[in-house]
Amino acid sequence: MLSPGQEEHCAPTKEPVKYGELVVLGYNGSLPNGDRGRRKSRFALYKRAKANGVKPSTVHILNTPQASKAVNCKGQHSISYTLSRNQTVVVEYSHDKDTDMFQIGRSTEGPIDFVVTDTVSGGGESEDTPITQSTISRFACRVVCERNPPYTARIYAAGFDSSKNIFLGEKAAKWKNPDGHMDGLTTNGVLVMHPRGGFTEESKPGVWREISVCGDVYTLRETRSAQTRGKLVAHPPGYPLFTILSSLMLLLLPLSSPAHSIHVLCAVFGAGASGALCFTVCRMAGPGPGAVLAGGVFAVSRLVWQWSVVAEVFSLNNLFVGVLFSLSACFHCAESVHHKKKFALWGALFCGLSLCNQHTLVLYVVIIIPWALLHLYTHNGLSFFGLVSLGTCFLAGFVPYIYLPISSYLNRARWSWGDQTSFHGLLTHLLRAEYGTFSLAKTDENLNLIKMLWAQWNHCVNDLSTPVLVLALLGILLSLWNRLRCVFIWLIVTMVSIYSVFFAWRANLNIEQPLLLGVVERFWLQADAGVCVLAGLGLSWAVCWLNGRLGRGTLWNTGAWILTAGLISHMISLNHKECDQSGNDVVDRFAREVVLSLPPNSLVLTRGDLPGNTLRYLHYCQGLRPDLSLVDQEMMTYSWYVAKLQKHLPGVTFPGRWWDPINTMEKKTFSIEQFLKHNMQTVC
Question: What's this model's pTM, rounded to 2 decimal places?
Answer without folding.
Answer: 0.66
